[in-house]
Specification:
This protein has 307 residues and is an alpha+beta fold. The chain has helices at 57-62, 97-100, 103-106, 108-115, 203-214, 235-249; strands at 8-10, 18-23, 26-30, 35-40, 45-48, 69-72, 89-92, 120-121, 127-128, 142-145, 151-153, 159-164, 173-177, 182-186, 193-195, 222-225, 231-233, 255-259, 262-266, 284-286. The strands form five sheets. A six-stranded mixed sheet has the order 1-2-3-4-5-6, with no helix packed on it. The chain has a six-stranded mixed sheet with strand order 11-12-13-14-16-17, covered by helices on one side. Strands 15-20-19-18 form a four-stranded mixed sheet, with helices on one face.
Length: 307
């Protein structure tokens, strides 16, 4: 496992964000339930995800680096991409552009509702709820496509490589940092991998994605995801492949449950603190209608559909 420099908390710009240096050139920005990452080279910085668009993430990041910032989204969900509207541009995989513009993810009401589902504290420890005045303004968003194998060159030998891992959404990507031997994985593979959502792939497709992801495993030791504020081992990928095989064979625990995306089935029983009882670091929630491959459902009922 990679060793983070850890624990160096930078001063807060506002009540919405906390920043912690996890490597010499990488800062984790924490919103409470969700995390994003600022990777600095010698010429540019890369902001991987932008949280849910409550508070001014651009102003906060400007307190952390003097470098010009490129923004990339691991996927199009409300807790990962809306902060990009404060920058006016973002790199993301085209398969998630239409999903991003769904009201749940793009509307001010959707962002505010998501943020206020969890408890947030001011610096002096007092709980607060965000209001519409705290929602980042939408001044338009220029979107640049990214695909498997694309590289962000940040200068000084800091190269961040795009790996496509469709599953949680069709447009999910992860970002490989070979220098620090880590992957910034968003929601691609974790203890609560939701595949029962609008825009998720089938289990069969997700297994193919994980097998592709696994071909890079010699280049990294762990993964920093979008939830949990900790680095998990790369064996999480093997756990995910094993669970896919069990689901495909009808041998998983198949525990019926309700999630933010609607009804689904939890593949492996959970123990304490959300962790699966089998001892691994991946679990999957899925729909029984989305196990085997089927035509890719295209979301088209809004004016910003990607063509």
């Amino acid at each position: 496992m990679p060793t983070a420099v850890g624990g160096e908390e930078k001063r807060m710009y506002s009540k919405f964000f906390k920043a912690t240096k996890i490597y010499d050139n990488v800062t984790m920005i924490d919103e409470g339930m969700v995390q994003c990452y600022l990777v600095e080279g010698t010429e540019r910085a890369l902001l991987i995800d932008t949280l849910c668009g409550i508070g001014n993430i651009k102003a906060f990041v400007s307190e952390l680096t003097n470098l010009p910032v490129t923004v990339v989204a691991t996927h199009g969900h409300v807790d990962h991409v809306p902060g990009a509207f404060t920058y006016g541009e973002v790199y993301m995989n085209p398969d998630d552009i239409a999903l991003m513009y769904r009201p749940m993810h793009a509307s001010p009401e959707g962002r505010l509702n998501y943020f206020n589902q969890s408890e947030h504290l001011t610096e002096d420890g007092k709980p607060f709820k965000a209001t519409m005045d705290d929602v980042a303004k939408d001044n338009g968003l220029r979107i640049y496509p990214v695909y498997d194998g694309d590289i962000f060159d940040l200068g000084g030998g800091i190269l961040i490589e795009v790996i496509q891992v469709p599953g949680h959404t069709y447009g999910t990507i992860v970002l490989l940092d070979r220098k620090n031997r880590v992957v910034f994985s968003g929601d691609a593979c974790n203890v609560n991998t939701l595949l029962n959502l609008e825009g998720s792939t089938t289990i069969e497709e997700y297994k193919e994605s994980l097998l592709h992801f696994k071909t890079f495993e010699d280049a990294f030791d762990g993964m920093w995801g979008g939830h949990g504020a900790r680095c998990v081992p790369k064996t999480t990928i093997d756990d995910g492949i094993m669970i896919c095989d069990e689901i495909l064979a009808g041998k998983d625990d198949a525990i019926e449950m309700q999630t933010i995306g609607g009804p689904g089935y939890l593949a492996k029983e959970r123990g304490e603190i959300f962790m699966p009882k089998y001892g691994g670091t991946c679990d999957i929630v899925y729909s029984k209608e989305m196990i085997h491959k089927r035509p890719h459902p295209v979301i088209t009922d809004h004016p910003n559909t990607y063509k």
